[in-house]
Design goal:
Blueprint lengths: L3 E9 L4 H9 L1 H7 L3 E5 L2 E6 L2 E11 L3 E6 L9 E7 L6 E10 L3 H19 L3
Antiparallel strand pairs: 1-7, 2-3, 3-4, 4-5, 5-6, 6-7
Helix pairs in contact: 1-2
């Protein structure tokens, strides 16, 4: 298996951290912007996109700050994806920080996918 490359992205979002946390940490919130449907049973989440399903294990969750998953297909690997809320101490600006992994030739595609999904999230939240 080819090594994956870690990449991080920052998306400024004009919304309260507690509201944003609901959208990144709950199945109903994630269903609004990340996948067509999301179900959870204990620490396992099922993400559904137009007929295809991917399962992920919840690795950690810290309210109202971050949530981290590992795809079941990456079990035993160090790969994960994390959604973290960062608030600037001085300006109080809120950003959604995304950490993910992709194979070398898929990093740009992965970044574009996140940009599209976070764009959907921003329009749902009414943030510019």
């Amino acid at each position: 298996m080819e090594d994956k490359i870690k990449y991080e992205m920052e998306f400024p979002i004009q919304v309260s951290p507690s509201l944003l946390y609901q959208y990144i940490s709950t199945p109903s919130g994630l269903s609004e912007w990340y996948a067509d449907n999301v179900n959870s049973r204990g620490e396992f989440y099922t993400f559904i996109w137009s007929g295809s399903e991917e399962r992920a294990k919840l690795l950690s969750k810290k309210s109202p700050e971050r949530i981290k998953f590992r795809w079941i297909e990456d079990e035993g690997e160090e790969f994960y994806f994390e959604l973290r809320i960062q608030v600037d101490e001085i300006t109080k600006d809120v950003s959604l920080m995304v950490t993910d992994f992709a194979e070398d030739d898929e990093v740009e595609e992965g970044k574009m996918l996140w940009e599209n999904m976070v764009s959907n999230l921003k329009s749902i939240l009414g943030s510019s």
